[in-house]
Amino acid sequence: MLKNIWQNSxxxxxxxxxxxxxxxxxxxxxxxxxxxxxxxxxxxLTLGILPANVSIIMLAALEVGIGIFFLLNIHPxxxxxxxxxxxxxxxTPLFFFNEISFNGYPIFLTLVGQYIIKNxxxxxxxxxxxxxxxxxxxxxxxxxx
Length: 145
Hints:
The chain is mainly α. It is 68% helix and 0% strand.
């Protein structure tokens, strides 16, 4: 029981730090290496309605918010679902911009493609947070001498 609680706490802290860090960079123009990819993707998803300078700030706020909520352990399951929605969008460049995601055949990823695919690890971690039972519902084994 304690092992699972500790593991998921560590996962939440790690995801929180990554989101806080990556999101924070997006508040400063051209500081995030993912800025161009992010704004191009959001433009595709919103059919160009949202200006790039607005979309990047909104994305930064979302990512920093996710990071803070995970770090403070505020509604982790709800935040995990929001994060899954965000991550679903991060996979769309594989379809919208396959020329920068793949090097020839679909199994040969570029650096951008690898940057996107590594999000599968975060998806797996989020699923473990969603699956986590509240402490009151977890069964404890009492070992009698």
